[in-house]
Structure formats: C-alpha cells, structure tokens
Amino acid sequence: MAETIEKKVVKKPSEPLLSKRRKKFVIDPLSDDNPITIQVLGICSALAVTTQLKPTLVMALSVTFVMIFSSLFISLLRNLIPTRVRIIVQLAIIASLVSLVNEVLHAYAFDVYKQLSVFVGLIITNCIVMGRLEAFAMGNKPYDSMLDAFGSAMGYSWIIIAVAFFRELLGSGKLFGFAVFDTIGWSTFPTNGLMVSPVGAFIILGLIIWVQRAKMGYVEQH
Amino acid sequence: MELINIGIKSIFIENMIFAYFLGMCSYLAVSKKVSTAFGLGLAVIFVLLFTVPVNWLLDEYVLKEGALAKWMPAALGDFTEINLSFLQFIMFIATIAAMVQLVEMVIEKFSPALYGSLGIFLPLIAVNCAILGSSLFMAQRDYSLAEATVFGFGSGIGWFLAIIAISAFREKLKYSNVPDGLKGLGITMLITGLMGIAFMSFMGISI
C-alpha cells in the first residue's frame, strides 16, 4: 500500500521581463483604463498644481516614485499584513515615502517646493496610490506590482501634463516659463485669466475627458 | 472679527472644492443623489470640526521646533533644539484615521439614527483629501487654536455646500440629453467649472 505519489516537478521557463501579459499592465492605464478619465480617481491633489508645466512635471515624478515604491513594499509584505489593519499599514508606508519626497524637494528644489506647498503632502490621500495598492499590490508579486504602478502613474502623468500644457499656454502664453507667443511674433495674444484660476482646470479636464472618451467610445452608465 | 472673516473666507472664497480641488474623489463618486451627498457632507463637517483642532494641538506641542520644550520637564534634557516637523504627514494622517474611528464609535453610541445614515461614509472620510488638506493649510498659515477650529468648521461647510449643489444638478441631469462621451464625469467637471465661476463672485469680500 505504500505507494508514494511522486510529484513531477516541471520547471516552468521563467517569464520574460516584458512579456505580453506584463506589457498590458503598463499600456492599459494609458488610455483604455486611465485612472483619471475612466476610473475617476486621483483628481483631488492633481489639478491645483497644473497652472504651470514645471511644478506639474515635479508632481508627476513624485507621484510615480511614491506609487512604484509603495507598490513594491506592500507587495513584499502582502502575506504578512493582517487584512483588518491593512489601510493603516498602507497609509503609513505611503506617508513615509511622501515625507521622503517632501524632504528631498525641500532640500534640492526649494522654489518648486514653495509652489507645490501642501499638495506634496496630499499625495498621501491620492486615491490612485491607495487604489492600486488595494486592487493590485495586495495580491500580486513585486515586479508585476511595480509595472502596474508605473503604468497607472504614467496614465495619471500624461493627463495632468496635458492639462498643464493648455493652462500655461492659454493662461499666460508660456511653456516652461518660455514666452511662446512673443517669440513667434504674436505679442498681442490675448491671455485668458480664467485658465490660471481653478475654473480653467475643471473646464480643460472636462474637455480632455470628453475628447478621450469620444475617441474610445466609452459611455458612462447612470 | 478676524474669526468671522476666516469663517467666511473658508466657506465661500477659498472653498475646498472650487479653489483647491480637495476632496474631489468623493465629491465625484458620492454625488449622484442629494440624500447620500447630504449624509457624506455632514460627516465631513463633523470630522473636520474635530481633526483640525486636534492636529493644531499636536503641531503646537509636539511637532514644531522647540514645541516639546513647552511642557517637557527640564530635568529630562534640553528640548529647545528638537524639530519634529518632518513627521507632520505621518502624525496628521494617523490622527485623522484615529479620529474618524473615534467619531464613528461616539456617533454609534449616542445617536444610532445618525449612525445609520452616515455609517458607510465615515470610513471613507479617512482618505478624503479635504481633511488632510485643511490640517496642512492650518499648519502652514500659523492659525491660533480658535482660528483653526473656525477654519476647520468653515471648510467643512464649504465642502458640504458644494457637494449638495452638484448632486442637485446631477439629479436633474438624468433627464437631459448629454453627448455620449461627456456623460457622467465630463459634464460634472464642466458644471463644477461653471459653479466655480459663480463662487468667484465672492472674491474680495472681507469684514
């Protein structure tokens, strides 16, 4: 009766670093599953910084950094975190990373740090970061989670950079502080003061969402 | 007088939604019906009213440079040099999470009816940017304790007004013929922009 069941160990060939499945993590959030325009996440802290391109770029980089590393850490710890306290653990990890970003900006880019003011701190409550941790990093391996976080961060970044592009161009006639309309000889270009105010951000983002959804054919159900 | 000024400013002129885009996530997600928006708005006012003063105390007596020296006995050492402000984010978010939990328990005990209507929204509030945002603004602007309390309460009221207004619009929008791509999020952003223009007319008011 002593039958030993021999389990045949088949060694799977390891997956290439950028297989088709993994590419999907990065490509999908750029348009089909964009965190801002489709999933409606992370609008909170983003719009306030988009009056100019430079702080927007810094914000996008900060969010990318925080997302990739929080996904890495949560994914490494995913089997150790009790489900009841997971929100607190996630918040603690995100808050530590954001403090790190804040101190680095304070030390090396003081003028941008001044411009961003409280909005660096508000990355903590950015719904995209927590959303990806909850939905992906809690149940997947570290490398996959990092790719997924990178994809979502890129999806978020291109939207806020697009908003900032139009707001700075139409609101003050500049790009990265470079006077575009003066250079091409159209110095009488009428700048729109509304674009610099928060109202401009809402309207530009509304229009970007419209164009993007119309192109994809996505219709929100009531 | 200064207190009334801060109150009016935080409700109308520097409205959390229309001037700083804070709390947009729940503003967009929970504004389909006026009754649920009302519940969430009340919960936000409630939590803001408590968290901003508590965070003020924390900032004043623990985190600021030399804050510990105010109450630590001198026998333990010299605390005037200690500056813990790099811990601000972690401490504030921890206070907020704890306060939300506490407020939830207190409401459950003393007013089960209110708890029934707010219940599901309370945990959501811990990650509402408006709460953390007002604490950070409070710390940045060097308010006194009374000013911080008024500011927290006013910000809550401002947020409440904004979410009630947008949910009323969205209830009516169901019967309008909106282009396909603009349905939902798109049209809500445009309407918020227009409401922002209306709120801009309060600019410059001071008492």
Describe the structure.
The complex is a heterodimer of chains A (222) and B (207). By secondary structure, chain A is mainly alpha-helical. Chain A has one domain. Chain A has helices spanning 20-27, 53-77, 86-108, 110-116, 127-135, 142-172, 180-183, 193-196, 198-216, and strands at 174-175, 178-179. A two-stranded antiparallel sheet of chain A has the order 1-2. In chain A, β1 and β2 (178-179) form a beta hairpin. In chain A, α2 runs parallel beside α5 (127-135) and α3 (86-108) packs across α4 (110-116). Chain A starts with 19 loop residues before the first helix and ends in a 6-residue tail after the last helix. The model of chain A has no long low-confidence stretch (mean pLDDT 82). In chain B, 71% of the residues lie in helices and 0% in strands. Chain B is mainly α and 207 residues long. The longest helix of chain B is centred in the first third of the chain and has 30 residues, at 34-63. In chain B, 48% of the residues are buried. The radius of gyration of chain B is 19 Å and the shape is globular. Chain B contains ten helices and no strands. In chain B, α5 (88-110) crosses α6 (112-118) and α8 packs antiparallel against α9. Chain B has one domain (2-199). At the A-B interface, α3 and α9 of A face α2, α3, α5, α8 and α10 of B.
Would you tell me the structural class of the helices and strands of chain A? mainly alpha
Oligomer: heterodimer
Into which percent range does the helicity of residues of chain A fall?
55-70%
Portion in strands of chain B: under 5%
Instruction: Compute the number of helices of chain B.
Output: 10
Strand tally of chain A, please?
2
Number of structural units classed as domains of chain A: 1
Number of helices of chain A: 9
Quote the average pLDDT of chain B.
83
